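Dear Dr. H.,

I hope your travels went smoothly. While you were away I took the liberty of generating a structure for the chain from your last submission, since the lab meeting agenda had it listed for discussion. I wanted you to have the full record in hand beforehand rather than looking at slides cold. The sequence, exactly as received, is reproduced here:
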Amino acid sequence: MSPLEELEKLIPKIEPAVRKSRFGEGLQKISDIAQFADNLRVNFRATLDVANRTEYGRRSDHVEAIEKVVLEADTLSKVLLHSSNEDDLVRARALREDLQKSYESLFRSLRGHIERWVEEQFVSQRGYTDLLKKIPQTMAFGLAQEACCNEALRARTVRNAVEMQSIIQRVCEQRETLNTQKESLNQIPGAGNFLEAIAEQRATLADVTPEVMSWLVEMNALETFSVQSSS
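The corresponding predicted structure, in token form, is as follows:
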């Protein structure tokens, strides 16, 4: 079972522990720990969703961070579920402090991963996006890609997994729609390859095939591009 699968399996176990801890919490001795565990359950769900959407958990340091949190959260849940005396309360508080630190470490690791993911999936496409914006017929597509990239960039600075999940979910759905539009553009022989070659500054006249030339004429985009000799 992968660490992410272990995390997914753990989430339902937390709720019974929270319910049991809140039952008879009149002295408020353990209610703060129960609330912490409940909030953690919500964050776990968000973290799991973000991880699955962005392929977090493949590196060894990712695995180690997830496994540490899973182990400590499972232990805390068991203590909350079976707590019956003051010693259990002391142990639960110590476990909460350890788990808080471990989850904060996991989230920092996830945010670092998201920074790299956004760079690879969105920022690296800016050259291609800028070209689309220069052609009247593809300008809307380019602007949509730019907006999606800007939204993805917000995920790098959020402070909690729930907000990150909301952003990542939106940009993944937007990217799926944009990829469909990109596939339509790629159906024009050579057009997609030509734009990518221009964006990556590796285009040559060989990329301007008769089909590409016809497409540029149709798009009224011949003067959008210039020719220069390679050094």
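Two observations you may find useful: The chain has two domains: 3-114, 123-224. The longest helix spans residues 86-121.

With kind regards,
E. W.
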